[in-house]
């Protein structure tokens, strides 16, 4: 997505993309970080924050999950924090019945200053603390264990080790990487997390020049447990990226290279 400063427009665009994903046979659809709003100011998140379980963004995600029969991960949305001046940057997972089954609050908060671009998420975001894995029963009868993360988390491999130790087969990384950092590190980091954990990595991203002037890297990507890029949305602009996960390939790779069982530290 290339989310704008208008919540309603972003929800309309997300619905269009979710409908397309469902029509192409997707079971799980993951929206990027900040799918609902890329404001003019960081503090704009405060104006659309919701209490857990209530609000138009959560109602939208639940309704789309029911309508399209999809598992949906709402990349991130702002939920009320302990501090009145902050929000939690939260991924919520909804089942095809519209039930909320998991919540993850982004743990690592982005900070970057190269003299031209300045970001400090801690000014308005309150960090989460707990890694989260949820189970997704697929249509073929297999149950996938899926680990949640967000954007800047990608630079902290210890989080993904924790998710793997909890049995994660799939790692989700909804993101809004800047063009500068994404061009330098995005693919390298995604492939590294896949290889280290012999896990699928699915990373939907904001990609393009936004109404607020920010430029994001995009390149939404699906990476297999051997580090092979299965699919990549290389152009800027909104779109849907489809990938199929092969459980037998993952099992074979983990048997051939049982690195996860060799951990010492």
Automatic annotation (TrEMBL):
The keyword GTP-binding appears for this protein: no
Q: Where is the CN hydrolase domain?
A: 1-247
Q: Which GO terms describe its molecular function?
A: hydrolase activity, acting on carbon-nitrogen (but not peptide) bonds, in linear amides
Q: So which domain of life are we looking at?
A: Bacteria
The protein's matches in InterPro entries, at most eight in alphabetical order, are given as: C-N_Hydrolase (IPR003010), C-N_Hydrolase_sf (IPR036526), Nit1/2_C-N_Hydrolase (IPR045254), UPF0012_CS (IPR001110)
Q: Does the keyword Signal apply?
A: no
Alphabetized, the UniProt keywords read: Hydrolase
Q: Which PROSITE patterns match?
A: CN_HYDROLASE, UPF0012
- Give the UniProt family note: Belongs to the carbon-nitrogen hydrolase superfamily. NIT1/NIT2 family.
Q: What is this protein called?
A: Carbon-nitrogen hydrolase family protein
Which organism does this record belong to? Answer: Ramlibacter rhizophilus
From the broadest rank down, the organism's phylogenetic lineage runs: Bacteria, Pseudomonadati, Pseudomonadota, Betaproteobacteria, Burkholderiales
């Amino acid at each position: 997505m290339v989310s704008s400063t208008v919540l309603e427009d972003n929800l309309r665009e997300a619905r269009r993309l979710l409908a397309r994903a469902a029509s192409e046979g997707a079971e799980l659809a993951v929206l990027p970080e900040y799918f609902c709003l890329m404001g003019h100011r960081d503090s704009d998140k405060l104006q659309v924050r919701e209490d857990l379980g209530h609000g138009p963004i959560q109602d939208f995600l639940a309704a789309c999950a029911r309508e399209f029969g999809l598992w949906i991960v709402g990349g991130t949305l702002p939920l009320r924090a302990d501090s009145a001046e902050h929000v939690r940057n939260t991924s919520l997972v909804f089942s095809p019945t519209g039930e909320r089954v998991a919540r993850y609050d982004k743990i690592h908060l982005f900070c970057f200053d190269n003299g031209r671009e300045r970001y400090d998420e801690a000014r308005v975001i309150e960090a989460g603390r707990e890694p989260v894995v949820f189970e997704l029963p697929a249509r073929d009868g297999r149950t996938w264990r899926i680990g949640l993360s967000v954007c800047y988390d990608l630079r902290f491999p210890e989080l993904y080790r924790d998710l793997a130790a909890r049995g994660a087969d799939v790692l989700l990384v909804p993101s809004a990487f800047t063009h500068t950092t994404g061009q330098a590190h995005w693919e390298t980091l995604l492939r590294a997390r896949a290889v280290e954990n012999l896990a699928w990595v699915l990373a939907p991203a904001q990609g393009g020049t936004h109404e607020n002037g920010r430029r994001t890297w995009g390149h939404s990507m699906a990476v297999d447990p051997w580090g092979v890029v299965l699919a990549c949305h290389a152009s800027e602009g909104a779109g849907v990226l489809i990938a199929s996960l092969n459980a037998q390939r993952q099992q074979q790779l983990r048997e051939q290279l049982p690195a996860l069982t060799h951990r010492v530290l």
